[in-house]
Amino acid sequence: MSKDSITIFLARLREKSFGRCSDTYRWLREHHEPLSEAIKKYQPAWRVVAQALTDEGIVGARGQKLSAKPLRRMWLRVCRDIEDDKRFAATGISARKRYPSQTSPNPQPNAAVRPALPSPIPGRTLSIIEVRSVQSQTPNEPE
After folding, report:
1. With the C-alpha atoms ordered 53, 49, 84, 95, is the resulting torsion angle positive or negative?
2. 50-74 tens-digit pLDDT
3. Which residues form the domain of 85?
4. How do the residues of the chain divide into helix, strand and coil, expressed in percent and rounded to 5?
5. Is 68 part of a structural domain of the chain?
6. Band of residue 94 on the pLDDT scale cut at 50, 70, 90
7. What is the chain's mean pLDDT, rounded?
8. Which of 53, 86, 113, 122 is the most buried (most CB within 10 A)?
């Protein structure tokens, strides 16, 4: 591949990232930061946001105009996914659900980690106690 074709290929990948998500989801995710600030600052009705996005050419999955309730749910999902991505980048732990198709067919239980024994305190070691057997003598036993 030439350098130009690689650039075009990477641009297409970037354009179609989150392939299983709708164009609206991708657009919201791409413009998350300025949208988040505007939504916090102005607190517009979702009906108004949906109409404004539809006027700008952003449409639903089947080409229909956006409606308020699904747009709001999608926005919340975008926000949750971005927060999860930030958390994963920081800790390496994801909060996303793992569905049965994503788990191993032969799951292995996590090995329990035993806590380390505390180090002995100098001068306070236990000494071995001598145990003597005691013969039981019952009181009414003939000798």
Report:
1. negative
2. 999 999 998 887 888 999 999 999 9
3. 20-97
4. 50, 0, 50
5. yes
6. confident
7. 78
8. 53
- Residue 49 domain flag: yes
C-alpha–C-alpha distance, residues 127 and 27, integer Å: 72
Structure tokens at 70: 């699904």
CA distance 138 to 125: 38
Q: Which of 7, 57, 48 is nearest to 27 (CA)?
A: 57
Compute CA 35 distance to the chain's CA centroid, rounded to the nearest angstrom. Answer: 23
Within-domain flag for 46: yes
Asked if 50 and 3 count as a contact pair (C-beta separation under 8 A), the reply is no
What DSSP designation does 126 have?
P
Whether the CB-CB separation of 15 and 64 falls below 8 Å is answered with no
Task: Give residue for tokens 């039981």.
Answer: 136
Has residue 138 been placed in a domain? no
The greatest distance separating any two alpha carbons of the chain, rounded to the nearest whole angstrom, comes to 111
Task: Please name which of 86, 73, 71 lies closest in space to residue 33, comparing C-alpha atoms.
Answer: 86
Instruction: Give the Cβ contact number of residue 42 at 10 Å.
Output: 9
